[in-house]
Amino acid sequence: MSDPSDLPPGTAPADDTAANSMGTVPGATAAESSPDQSPQNPFAERIAALEAEIAQARDRWLRAEAETQNLRSRTQREVADARNYAIQKFAGDVVEAAQNLRRGIEALPAPRGDEDPLLVKLREGFEGVERSFLGMLERHGIQRQEAQGQPFDPALHQAMAEQPAPEGVAPGTVIQAWTPAWTLNGRLLKPAMVVVAAGGSASASAA
After folding, report:
1. Locations of Pro residues compositional bias (predicted)?
2. How far apart are CA 177 and CA 194, in angstroms?
3. Residue 193 falls in which region: left (phi positive, over 0), alpha (psi -120 to 50) or beta
4. Which of 34, 132, 152, 183 is within CB 3.0–4.6 Å of 202 for a Cys-Cys bond?
């Protein structure tokens, strides 16, 4: 560095700092010191927001699909029930007629070896009508469920009375059936009116 006293009069000494900074662009040093840093993605927040909206929309779609499936299943079940049980009231009247036919057959005299042939034909005719009638009912889903000798079932039987259990009969057994049970496509239409051997599960029902 030159001595300022050697300079010609009126000449200012050179500024070493300015000389050293010539050719340097302001801010270049800071930029060059971290060349690996990249500017923040201006679309990152928007992308994240769109992904969240897509997830919410998918969740809503899945819920709506599940509700639609449940509604479809429920509707199909209701339609099937309406089809299967639409004749329930009519079926109740029909089985009453079937029971009256059975009462008429049971009112005939017991078969004997010397009975009138006309009575034999009459009984056979009634029994044939009954078989045909019951077959027609079964084709429409109406079935007769015999109760005599069966264990008491509260889903099918209505206990009208209790009696001491006969010898060899387990308590809770149906020892007399006044009427059979009737079902329509597996659903109870009319319960059997029964007498039950005392000591079984029918005690509370008959009380």
Report:
1. 1-11
2. 4
3. beta
4. 152
